[in-house]
Amino acid sequence: MPNTISDLPLEPFKIKVVERISLPPREVRERELEAAGFNLFNLRSEAVYIDLLTDSGTSAMSDEQWAAMMRGDESYAGSRNYYRLEARVQEITSYAHVIPTHQGRSAESLLFSTVLKPGMYVPNNMHFDTTRANVEANNGNAVDMLCREGFDMDSDFPFKGNMDVERLDAFLAEHGREAVPLVMITVTCNSNGGQPVAMANVREVRKICDAHGVPLFLDACRFAENSFLVREREEEFADRSVKEIAQELFSYAVGCTFSGKKDALVNMGGFFACNDDELARLLTEKLILVEGFPTYGGLSGRDLEAMAQGLEEVLHEDYLAFRIGQVRMMAAALEEASIPHIKPAGGHALYLDAKAFCPHIPPAQFPGQALSTALYLEAGIRSVEIGSLMFEQGDADTGEAMHPELEMVRFAIPRRVYTTRHLQYVVDAIIRLYEKRDSLCGLEIVSAPPRLRHFTARLRPVQ
Ligand SMILES: *Cc1c(COP(=O)(O)O)cnc(C)c1O
User: Fold this and answer.
1) What are the structural domains of the chain?
2) From ligand 1's centre to the CA of 151, what distance in Å?
């Protein structure tokens, strides 16, 4: 576990192209935050110095990927780039059908609009926000079944993304396969901190699914990071390559949704893949209606080629060691400064525990949002709240607001983008803010839409 910069695995790349960034002055940051309605999603990117809003679609592509873009075959039908992507996906997943989509959520939309009937349930270790929204938009019930350790910020349990298998078993026994069209596992579990799922857990979930006749799918956005962490933490896999581990992971599911914006190292793209012929047929029909012809599915040929190349590079073990090492180095620095954060650090991001960081701000005043906006003012850093603003729900019976168990601020690390000095700057700013945490002030909503409100809500400081 790296604790200092010199313990960090060496960069397995050098820089060929740079992009200018600068820190806007404090007055500008104040003005921009006000204009953005205290929602960092509403900021112009130029008002941000270090942008850790997401690791999604923010990767730096390699020279090989840019070269791949030049090999784009923009034929409407039968583009050679599709066949290369199909072969690459099949090599890793062994799924027969590969359906490209313009990003992960359109794969989710195709899947859930096809398999869900009103009132059905989808169990998941923990739904990602767009996954939950797509289940609910199709009148389904998204049920999170994360293991108990996954909610304990201080637990150093190595697989905090695991599904609670006893709960899943009981749930499937109660509702039966008529009401549960599929079970999903999200690797790594984004919504509780990029925490990995153990292969042993995936095997158990598969066994339970088989016993109840329900198919298992993966939300596979970060399959490579999960596989890397499996090798590190599950003894059985210590001598296996990350690629072999990924292959085994996919072998337990019949299909997956995938956002290329994560572990395919591209700025846009995704796919759905599966072994179910009938399901693939139904999704392909819908794909033509909403995305495009089956061999491009909402993407250009060049995008398919870059994704195929990225799927190869993401399994490079020196790359994964450096990437996950960067996140750990930040976590180790926060630990040293006794700043409350999720332990152990996940694969793609660092998460502060906002409840413990600012205990004087109640969940109804969005402590995570208060913390992330304060850090923007402090240092021009953009992070994202994952807490009450993103996940608060009205109680079905009383209509009263129910707050999620975790109030977090996520710092997602774009792949191959920021230097270690950049990330040190972020850690230093968090430490400075922690020293004056009593001055942080809660927020209230001015306006918000009913679904996925965190993207566009406007807020203001509580008077
Ligand atoms: C990003 C993400 C998605 C959705 O993918 P998009 O490409 O953003 O539409 C789904 N699930 C998880 C776990 C994700 O991280």
Assistant:
1) 5-55+317-461 (3.90.1150.10), 63-313 (3.40.640.10)
2) 21
